[in-house]
Write a structure and sequence with these properties.
By secondary structure, the protein is of the alpha/beta class. The protein is built from ten helices and twelve strands. The strands form two sheets. Strands 1, 2, 3, 4, 5, 6, 7, 8, 9 and 12 form a ten-stranded parallel sheet that branches. The chain has a two-stranded antiparallel sheet with strand order 10-11. The longest helix has 15 residues.
Length: about 325
């Protein structure tokens, strides 16, 4: 377990012959994941669109013509009904997203707390992503039983200003520190395919692997190029590049959950199985990821069965 990886070391891993990289990642993964199980997580957008941030990849930014405003914010009971359905379908973790720059106090935050309590009462892990938060908000979320808070770094510090200008990299790191201080587990990863270099990918992973302790959850996303966003013309990510990111994340952060996230819908079954082989031990399970598509539940069941991988049955992990 290391927290002192350098960018050149990580870049060298990313550039290894694929077979060598997979062999290494497989050894680490089998040691950290006895029984070779995958956690199923479901994701719901509670508040969609109208976000003040100008993230170049996001169809929910009011700065982009793709902004999907107009959808009413969901109330507590419909969210909990979706959580019940997710549990019945086999999910162990229920993630809820709000398109905010930072959490809104008052009635919206009180509703969020009710949702977290309700999800936990169902026996599911509860995860929230809602932008920046204060120490007091983090403490109240912890008191409500929140399992994890998602706040991605998106990309490397060096590439960051080409992707977003309305929030600094340091502000993202400060949000993560508040989550840690509150005793909530951290869900933090990034996106590839946004015009970054291999060095940028190594730099992103270096920041994540330098956190002590490592994030408990590391989502690895491939850009879904949405019409109306500044990145709409970006070419699709080569699935093997996603495999490489998963494998290196697994080597650097052996006990973290490496989550195969956005971009999976366009991958072949073989590409997804390679990601599972490389060390992914969680997938988002359900038909949508906030506003972009995801693989169908039945297709995921068939995929896991074909790969001989079992769902993780212990939501307390």
């Amino acid at each position: 377990m290391r927290h002192d990886w350098t960018v050149p070391e990580i870049q060298a891993l990313l550039e290894l012959p694929l077979m060598d990289l997979l062999w290494w990642a497989q050894a680490v993964h089998r040691a950290a994941n006895p029984g070779y199980r995958v956690q199923l997580a479901s994701l719901l957008s509670v508040k969609t669109g109208g976000c003040e941030e100008d993230c170049a990849y996001c169809p929910q930014s009011l700065h982009n013509s793709s902004d999907v405003t107009g959808r009413p914010e969901l109330e507590v009971e419909p969210v909990l009904e979706r959580a019940r359905a997710a549990k019945q379908a086999g999910a162990h973790r229920f993630c809820m997203g709000w398109a905010w720059r930072d959490i809104r106090d008052g009635a919206p935050f009180e509703a969020m707390l009710q949702m977290v309590r309700g999800v936990r009462e169902l026996g599911l892990e509860a995860c929230v992503t809602a932008g920046m938060l204060t120490d007091s908000q983090a403490a109240r979320l912890a008191e409500a039983g929140l399992t994890s808070y998602n706040h991605n770094l998106d990309t490397s510090p060096e590439h960051y200003d080409r992707i977003i200008s309305t929030r600094t990299y340091q502000e993202r790191l400060e949000t993560l520190a508040r989550v840690r201080r509150a005793g909530i587990s951290m869900c933090c990863g990034g996106i590839i395919g946004m015009g970054e270099t291999t060095t940028d990918r190594a730099s992103l992973l270096q920041v994540l692997a330098s956190l002590n302790p490592h994030p408990e959850s590391v989502p690895i996303n491939a850009l879904v190029a949405v019409e109306g966003t500044p990145l709409q013309e970006q070419p699709p990510v080569d699935p093997l590049e996603l495999v490489r990111m998963v494998a290196v994340a697994r080597i650097l952060m052996p006990t973290s959950r490496v989550r195969l996230s956005a971009g999976r819908e366009t991958m072949s079954r073989e590409g997804q199985v390679l990601c599972l082989l490389a060390g992914a031990d969680s997938i988002f399970y359900g038909d949508t990821l906030l506003t972009t598509g995801n693989s169908a539940v039945d297709a995921d069941r068939e995929l896991l069965a074909a790969a001989g991988v079992n769902p993780w049955l212990d939501p307390s992990r």
